[in-house]
Design goal:
Largest sheet: 6 strands, mixed
Structural class: alpha/beta
Number of helices: 11
Number of domains: 2
Shape: globular
CATH architecture of the largest domain: 3-Layer(aba) Sandwich
Distance between the termini: 52 Å
Length: about 350
């Protein structure tokens, strides 16, 4: 008997629709849907996809506990031997959903779980210790390469075979250390790596270090009393009703809003869209996150020349590095064009 697989995909890959259908509630179809065709082929005769769960990214992330319970109930109904989600590539909300439901299935049903993501997907850091996350490219163009890697790892898990290192089995490092025995002492291995590095030869480190982006700071402003200063926040402060529908997690957009003539933000006119912190205090006084009131005082006192007439806002919760960089570049271009000399970035 082939192993039983339940596959999870979002509304786009489930052929329901795009962003306009992101609020689709979870439902299940028996058999294969969308990328499940490629997964079916890669699994071969060893496993069969008995059902596919489809859920909108917006619905899942905005109703996390409810969505997890609903999807788990659907998965449990088919008594699978393994659960496979995605791949999500660099789609932030999709990645978070894949990771969250993988963790839920693993903990509640006790079966192996696999997903696939680009390393910068916010779902990776959140859930890499809870599920095997196969390393993929940043877009669906890499589907043909990603699916066989996920299938190969799935078969090894199903057959109880030993899982190799992240490089051997193409999954993202999980932060889990294992003791291994080597024929040579660590001191000799370290010296051998150093000699190889100094001579330009190839070597593989046994303890890779994280790579941090280095940004050279701009020179300080000499005269703040004549400077135009802007406010930019990842704390999610938006006009009441969130007119641009910025997501509470894994934001796919940012907003630009006028504060011309606004002396202070009020609870009647502003709120937070952020889903990563308790919103009570931010909603009661939005100036706690976006300090328009204090900036107006500094403007009147001549400490700054002028507060820029617009502010920019997004939600930092789970937002991918790639999207954050894209937003920053677009916002910076606008601010420079409008003669802004300084920006105050506020978080949560």
């Amino acid at each position: 008997m082939p192993y039983r697989v339940v596959h999870y995909i979002n509304q786009f890959f489930g052929q329901v629709g795009g962003e306009d259908k992101a609020d689709t509630q979870p439902f299940i179809k028996e058999g294969v849907v969308g990328p499940g065709m490629a997964l079916k082929g890669a699994l071969g005769q060893d496993a069969v996809i008995v059902a596919t769960v489809i859920c909108g990214d917006g619905y899942f992330n905005e109703n996390l506990e409810t969505a997890k319970a609903e999807v788990l109930s659907m998965v449990e109904r088919y008594s699978p031997d393994i659960f496979i989600a995605g791949p999500a590539f660099n789609a932030g909300r999709y990645g978070v959903a894949c990771g969250a439901i993988c963790k839920e299935v693993k903990e509640k049903l006790g079966i192996p779980v696999i997903t696939g993501m680009y390393p910068e997907n916010p779902g990776v850091d959140l859930y890499k210790k809870d599920a095997y996350v196969v390393k993929t490219s940043d877009s669906a163009a890499g589907m043909r390469k990603a699916v066989p890697l996920m299938a190969n790892l799935a078969i090894k898990l199903l057959k109880g075979e030993a899982i190799g290192s992240p490089d051997e089995d193409s999954y993202i490092e999980r932060g889990i250390r294992k003791n291994v025995f080597k024929n040579e002492l660590g001191a000799k291995r370290a010296v051998d790596m150093l000699v190889a590095k100094l001579s330009g030869a190839e070597f593989t480190t046994e303890y890779p270090m994280p790579a941090f982006d280095r940004v050279t700071p701009n020179p300080p402003i000499k005269d703040m009393s004549n400077a135009k200063v802007a406010l930019v926040t990842s704390g999610g402060i938006v006009p009441k009703g969130n007119p641009d529908k910025i997501e509470s997690s894994s934001a796919s957009k940012y907003g630009r809003y006028s504060i011309a003539g606004v002396e202070a933000l009020t609870a009647d006119t502003y709120e937070t869209a952020h889903g990563g912190y308790d919103p009570v205090y931010a909603n009661a006084d939005p100036n706690r996150v976006l300090p328009v009131d204090v900036m107006r005082e500094l403007e009147k006192e001549g400490v700054i020349g002028k507060l820029y007439d617009y502010y920019y806002a997004t939600v930092g919760n789970g937002t991918s590095v790639a999207n954050a960089m894209k937003y920053a570049q677009a916002i910076a271009k606008d601010l420079i064009a409008d003669g802004v000399q300084a920006v105050i970035l506020t978080s949560t």
